């Protein structure tokens, strides 16, 4: 399905909602956030744990976003922010209008994205208060993990936009030992540090939830956790913040 780059002028906001969490205190650091999952993603990561619930990209039915906006409005005072996740939320051209609607409620707006559409991210940036950029690998390794040739260049453009915009952000990498060696991970992290990334999170893949059945089995020769924790300690010299999650 081809989803247009921008919505029709004056049209109602339409977003295909795949899920909603009324409160998630980890989606946006330091904020009491609601988490809105949008359906559809152009990538095919083997470790993905949301693909089964996201489903393929689709056009939204009338009223889907209106229902979510109503839930958010009812929780003003209980929430500080709303975070759009997925799937890949920048797939959808009505996302800037939805971000504006959230800001009109007094909510900060966060975004989880892999950066495959830098031109859409650029349009969103003035509306965003925080971004988590999913960094799946370095150069061609990104394409291999994501299952889409050439996507790493789009991601690199998105990273450049974030570095220039001044919007608070972190890069985060989901670690599955089918995709990385310890040396690969360190090289990726140091490349990000050299680019100017100041906050980095490494999150362990949850094997039981992985999309690809081959990813649900533990890797026999995976490095021990102690080796990963040693790497994290080394990386802290190069970042303002490094976290190991999971």
TrEMBL record:
Stored Pfam families: Radical_SAM
Cofactor names: [4Fe-4S] cluster
Segments forming domain Radical SAM core: 28-241
InterPro entries: Aldolase_TIM, NrdG2, Radical_SAM_PqqE_MftC-like, rSAM, rSAM_sf
Keyword Iron-sulfur applies: yes
CDD domains according to UniProt: Radical_SAM
Keywords on record: Iron, Iron-sulfur, Metal-binding, S-adenosyl-L-methionine
Record keyword Disulfide bond present: no
Highest taxon of source: Bacteria
Molecular function as annotated in GO: catalytic activity; iron-sulfur cluster binding; metal ion binding
Position of the signal peptide: none
Matches recorded under NCBIfam families: NrdG2
Protein name: Anaerobic ribonucleoside-triphosphate reductase activating protein
